Amino acid sequence: QVQFVESGGGLVQPGGSLRLSCAASGFTFSNYAMAWFRQAPGKGRELVGFIDRSGTSTNYVDSVKGRFTISRDNAKNTLYLQMNSLKPEDTAVYYCKATSMALWGQGTQVTVSS
Fold first, then answer.
1. Order of strands, edge to edge, in the sheet holding 45-51?
2. Beta strands in the chain (DSSP E)
3. Which of 58, 60, 112, 114 is the most exposed place for a label (fewest CB within 10 A)?
4. Are 45 and 95 in contact (CB under 8 A)?
5. 46 with 38: CB under 8 angstroms?
6. How far apart are CA 15 and CA 11, in angstroms?
7. How many other CB atoms sit within 10 Å of the CB of residue 68?
């Protein structure tokens, strides 16, 4: 069955970096555009950015432009989110999903705090 497993979250100081991974299985990964979402405490889930099927085109929400980079390795069925210059307001649970699927993974917690 279709599955998304996010990993790589943790506690990091402001200005630090983290790299999240999303291992996808149960479908042909290279046929789907993929996205990262996040949900901060007490807030709704928001789109962080997305990447096309080949990995050549990306788009980001304004609040992370220039700091976050989405990439993918279709040979490994894996999606990545490189997060640099992290801010406390980036604290959230981060999720990946295929843009045309309703299924969500369990997410990975990112906490930015000194």
1. 10-12, 108-112, 92-98, 34-39, 45-51, 58-60
2. 3-7, 10-12, 18-25, 34-39, 45-51, 58-60, 68-73, 78-83, 92-98, 108-112
3. 114
4. yes
5. yes
6. 12
7. 21
* Amino acid (1-letter code) at residue 105: G
Positive/negative CA dihedral, 41, 39, 106, 103 = positive
Q: What are the tokens at 99? A: 């843009």
> How do residues 3-48 score in pLDDT, each as one tens digit?
999 999 999 999 999 999 999 999 999 999 999 999 999 999 999 9
The residue type of 58 is T
At 84, the amino acid letter reads N
CA 91 to CA 93: how far, in whole Å?
7
List the structure tokens of 23: 């291992």
